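Quick start: what a row looks like.
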Amino acid sequence: MISRAEAEMVVERVGLGGRVAYRVVWVFARALTKVYWRLEVVGAERVPTTGGFVLAPVHRSNLDFLLAGLAVRRRVRFMAKSTIFKKAKVSQAIYGLGGFPVQRDSADIGSLVICERILAAGEPVVVFPEGRRKEGDHVHDLFDGPAFVAARQRVPIIPIGIGGSDRAMPIGSKMIFPRKVTIVIGEPIYPDVPLHGRVPRSVVRALTEDLRGAVQDVYDTAREMAS
């Protein structure tokens, strides 16, 4: 299991240069996507302006990582599969932009520890509750990870629906097509837990179920608006 010191190192790896680079990339990408995908973001006013929170988007395309970051104006931290961190220059760039590695084929407790440290530092983090990319109009079973870290840190989870990304870059495609994309941001879901003490497993499970319903609602709306 990752140590607290190692988690702190990941949290602190984004310096001033990384923050400036993130903002430059964000502005450029937001402008480009508005033209190429006619990107529309609905519900941006629901995003907290301070403090940590978990962004929980539906996952239908490799583009969803980019789109989740473009959905909010605040800099977000995000997980990336560990294999792309093997090249030093790529690894440095991803760390600088706020990414951190996750082992996707196993129960990666270390990534959850990092998420908690990021949230404790008052920063937002993106976690795809379905895990890998899925297909179809229905939200699949969710992992408890997003609810677990949100409940432990007493921060809200924000459901994100992304409509059209599966047509802009379908699973298995290396091409990116000019299709209408809409992002719908749902109301924050606050964990029903006391301010201190352990978090009961039942609370995490209930929060996960609430999240699944909320993600389905915003996904349905986003798909309809993008069609």
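That is the whole record. The chain is about 40% helix and 15% strand. The domain at 4-226 is CATH 3.40.1130.10 (Glycerol-3-phosphate (1)-acyltransferase).
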